[in-house]
Amino acid sequence: MLRYIRGILAQSVLVVAGLVLFSGIGEAAGPASGNPLQAAQLLGSLPVAGSTSQIVLVVGHELSFWEKGSDGRFSMIQVSYCGYGRNGLEPEAGRVEGDGTTPVGIFPLEQAFGMADNPGTTIRYQKITPDSYWSGEPEDYNTWVETKTRSMPNSEHLADYPDAYEYAMVIGFNTNPIIVGRGAGIFLHCKRETHWYTAGCVSIPQPAMKQLLRQCRPGAWIVIVRNLEEIANLPVNA
């Protein structure tokens, strides 16, 4: 059985039979790492499985990365403890801005960004500048904005979070269509230095985030659920 190292600040890396383990808090194998065959079958049954070869799976506090082989089956190649919204996981249709939840659903990983230089990902990567914002303003809600002159009172100044946004990926929540007030800036990013919980994003240790970026290619998707069984009933946010 895979076991995580106890302790919020414990972050080690272990490779077992090709599976990269990034450990954090917790005591036992997670839902996917403890049931890899079931997880692989459920991922393979998703509509997006026909068009992507890579899926990031979040089941509660476990994040795993899956790659489709030449036989069409998904295999887990990376696993890590993860944090999520301070108020839990919420189906995307019921989520609203500021409720402190992470949306449950299936979403494209649309782009990557960070304070640091591109670590080697082939996903479109944008480096944060002092003028970078993720907009919460009605006119360009839930998009990246570069501005030196605009007032952005409802937006996130990305450079204010150098630990979380050293490396990050944009989770394609509320993008097609964009609905003002549903939520903006849902990311997969590095764990904060002091805590795991987030305002709605998913967080993993910095070494895990860097490794994930190096492995992900354009066209990867993320699946966020509360339990494995929920995968079978998810709508696709195409």
Q: How would you describe this structure in keywords?
A:
238 residues, L,D-transpeptidase catalytic domain-like, mainly beta, 12-stranded mixed β-sheet, disordered N terminus, 30% strand
What does the model show?
This protein is mainly β and 238 residues long. The protein has one domain: L,D-transpeptidase catalytic domain-like. 10% of the residues lie in helices and 30% in strands. It contains 3 helices and 15 strands. The protein has helices at residues 31-34, 36-44, 206-215, and strands spanning 13-16, 19-22, 54-59, 62-68, 74-81, 89-91, 102-114, 125-127, 132-134, 144-146, 156-157, 168-171, 187-190, 202-204, 221-225. Strands 1, 2, 3, 4, 5, 6, 7, 8, 12, 13, 14 and 15 form a 12-stranded mixed beta sheet that branches. The chain has a 3-stranded antiparallel beta sheet with strand order 10-9-11, with no helix packed on it. It is globular and about 55 Å long. The termini are far apart.
CATH superfamily: L,D-transpeptidase catalytic domain-like
- Number of helical runs? 3
Question: What fraction of the residues are assigned to beta strands by DSSP?
Answer: 25-35%
The gyration radius over C-alpha positions equals 17 Å
What is the CATH class name? Mainly Beta
The appropriate CATH architecture is Beta Barrel
CATH topology: L,D-transpeptidase catalytic domain-like
